[in-house]
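Reply to dn_fold:

You asked what the input looked like. This is it:
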Amino acid sequence: MLRFLKFVKHAFWTTVAVVMISVFAITATFQSNMTPSWKQISQDDNIDDSISDAEVRAISKSRTSAVKIRSMSINFFAGTSTMTGTYFVAKGKPYVLTVHHGIMGPCLLIMVSHGDQDYLCKEYIVVDKYNDYIIMELEQEIESRIPIKIPEDLPRGSQWKKSYSLLNKLIYTGYPNAIGPLTLRGDVIGYGDDEFIYIFSHAYGGASGSGVFSKEGKYIGYVVAIDVGSTELGVDVLENVVIVASALNVDWTAVLD
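and this is what came back:
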């Protein structure tokens, strides 16, 4: 009798296991044949699975911290400028860093947005015309974004030199022509006299202010321009030579003190 009960128990659990495996197999097959929604396709975590885990994390950090910025002038006829910024937190407060050259008016005429949500500038913390950046504190946190953390997400020591090494790969996400966010790769190809880094990538109007990250996920600078130069043939615009300002020259003490 005991042997019979053991047989029945074993047969029962074997049947349960077979049924569960069959259900999982059918479910997996069904899901693999389902057409994904556009919302699923456009998620920030839909990243090519052939990329290394470290670079996937860097791409994700770049995308989820990127915001679109609109700046209006007090002069109604001067219009509006659009650029990109990087959302970050320091000591629990929300900030955005972007380029100075895109700012047309006071803090109260700045709109920081992601998707259909808009957020207001509380005050300008740092205004640096020479290094072409501005740090603004926001009225509230951006719920749909994941901020980078300062100083944790900055390189340290020799990591700075490695991040700027020739042909090292960098990543940035921006809003060129007010569309996006669009994520691009670039290679370090040289250096400028004013401590700028040149990368081989692409940028257009609206991408200024985009945070640039190393493939290790460290914030190393921000896009300021594309190369424009005079030659014997006139003015040449190199849209694939992107000028990046170094985050080494940002006064982070203003948000850390």
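The chain has two domains: 65-148, 152-250.
Hope that clears it up.
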